[in-house]
Amino acid sequence: MTVQDLINSNLFQLKNAGDDPERDITAPFCCDLLSVAMGKAPAGCAWVTVMANINTLAVASLTDAACVILAEDACVDEVTLNKAEMQGITLFTTGLPIFDAALSIYQKLNP
């Protein structure tokens, strides 16, 4: 599944379409502790978190995440949204709990 496939699925609300819609998503990844995510998020992951701030985007960039999904109705502010646009990071939001959001990605990757 690519980032564009996830956009087209309408599972989540798209806040910013990043620079690489044809990027393959390798796995869902759930973590809210940024220092842990820095060391453990696999490249190409769809990172599901409630940490809706600019530091999350820095970690997403460092770990080479394919996209970020802000779960549980985490609100993204304008500064973070503008940074996602500047860095070309695909950013979604959802009201789903973290586990359910990650599970929906997993199910799409493993039909």
Description:
- The protein has 5 helices and 5 strands; from the N terminus they run αββαβαβαβα.
- The protein has helices at residues 3-9, 34-40, 54-63, 78-87, 98-109; strands spanning 13-16, 28-30, 46-49, 67-70, 91-93.
- A 5-stranded mixed β-sheet has the order 1-5-4-3-2.
Q: Count of helices?
A: 5
Instruction: Give start-end ranges of low-pLDDT stretches.
Output: none
Separation of the first and last Cα atoms: 11 Å
- What is the spatial order of strands in the main beta sheet? 1-5-4-3-2
The chain-level structural class is alpha/beta
Strand content: 15-25%
Helix content: 40-55%
Anisotropy-based shape: globular
Mean pLDDT: 97
The total strand number stands at 5
How is the biggest beta sheet arranged?
Answer: 5 strands, mixed
- How large, in whole angstroms, is the Cα Rg? 12 Å
Please provide the ordered H/E string of secondary-structure elements.
Answer: HEEHEHEHEH
Keywords:
single chain, alpha/beta, globular, 16% strand, 111 residues
How do the strands and helices of this protein lay out in sequence?
Elements: H1 3-9, E1 13-16, E2 28-30, H2 34-40, E3 46-49, H3 54-63, E4 67-70, H4 78-87, E5 91-93, H5 98-109
Parallel strand pairs: 2-3, 3-4, 4-5
Antiparallel strand pairs: 1-5
Helix pairs in contact: 2-3
